[in-house]
Amino acid sequence: MARITGTSSSAVMKVSLDGGTPVTLASGLSAPGHIAVDASSVYFTTSGAVMKMPLQGGTPTTLAFIDESETDGLAVNATGVYRIQIGGVWKVPLGGGTSTMIASRRDGHGAIAVLGTSVFWLDNPLQIID
User: Fold this and answer.
1) What are the tens digits of pLDDT across the range 65-96?
2) pTM of the full predicted structure?
3) pLDDT digits (tens, 9 = 90+) for 47-66
4) Fold topology of 23-120
5) Contact present, 16 and 9 (Cβ < 8 Å)
6) Cα separation of 94 and 99, whole Å?
7) Which residue(s) pair with 13 in the sheet?
8) Which residues lie below 8 Å from residue 29, measured CB to CB, with a gap of 6+?
């Protein structure tokens, strides 16, 4: 089975809600995979890390090192960046640090969202059909 990976031209982009010319916020990234934003920053995963940078772009900083191959989604609130992956829901502090599991989950694919004091996710186990 072939594996698709990003290229050295992988980038984080933005454009006005009304459309227009896309703006590159960061480029030359190693396989960016998931993205979330808050009022001041863009958060995204790469092949091995959760990254953060200002909304206007600039040099991304590493918040935590992760196994990106298993990450399904990313969400952010005022205290942390949350990601869902096979086996668990993880939190990284906004200022960076250790990624800690806050809930276990079944294997499979899912999505994640944060609202108020709760984290929500889809727990969609994989089904193997012979």
Assistant:
1) 887 567 889 999 999 999 998 788 999 999 99
2) 0.84
3) 889 999 999 999 999 999 88
4) Neuraminidase (2.120.10)
5) no
6) 11
7) 24
8) 6, 10, 11, 12, 46, 60
Query: Would you state the structure tokens that stand for residue 36, as one six-digit string?
Result: 């979330």
Q: How is the chain classified by DSSP, letter by letter? A: -------TT-EEEE--TT----EEEEES-S----EEE-SSEEEEEETTEEEEEETT----EEEEE--GGGEEEEEE-SSEEEEEETTEEEEEETT----EEEEE--SSB--EEEETTEEEE--B------
> Sign of dihedral through CA atoms 91, 92, 95, 98?
positive
Domain residues of the chain, as ranges?
23-120
